């Protein structure tokens, strides 16, 4: 069963902490929020790194200039031809 202190820890009101269990509940709630933010920041960083990688920027450029021409397919065919010639 949750106590009144545990329920209110999402919006920590330090003046409501009256005993050790209140401090522990506040600390646990704060730790959960910190871990959640850490995961959120790590995911955001990973997404940014993927998007701004050389391959990601190249793919974005290809999509922008392709318009009506299937440039990505043309480039893929060119790479395949080059690989065959190099073998």
Task: Report on the architecture of this protein.
- With 87 residues, the chain is an all-alpha fold.
- Helices cover 75% and strands 0% of the residues.
- The protein has four helices and no strands.
- It has helices spanning 4-7, 20-51, 54-66, 71-86.
- The protein is rod-shaped and about 75 Å long.
- Residues 5-9 have low confidence and may be disordered.
Helix content class: over 70%
Number of helices: 4
Q: Return Rg in Å.
A: 26 Å
Low-confidence stretches: 5-9
Q: Count all strands and give the number.
A: 0
SSE arrangement, N to C: HHHH
Structural class: mainly alpha
Task: Report the β-strand fraction as a percent range.
Answer: under 5%
Distance between the termini: 70 Å
Largest sheet: none
Shape: rod-shaped
Summarize model confidence as the mean pLDDT.
80
Q: What is the assembly state of the chains in this entry?
A: single chain
Topology:
Blueprint: H1 4-7, H2 20-51, H3 54-66, H4 71-86
Keywords:
87 residues; mainly alpha; 75% helix; rod-shaped
Short description:
The chain is mainly α. The chain has four helices and no strands.
């Amino acid at each position: 069963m949750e106590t009144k202190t545990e329920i209110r820890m999402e919006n920590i009101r330090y003046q409501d902490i009256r005993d050790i269990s209140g401090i522990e509940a506040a600390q646990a709630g704060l730790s959960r929020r910190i871990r959640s933010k850490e995961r959120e920041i790590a995911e955001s960083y990973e997404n940014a790194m993927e998007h701004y990688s050389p391959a990601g920027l190249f793919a974005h450029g290809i999509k922008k200039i392709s318009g009506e021409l299937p440039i990505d397919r043309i480039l893929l065919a060119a790479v395949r031809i080059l690989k065959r010639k190099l073998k």
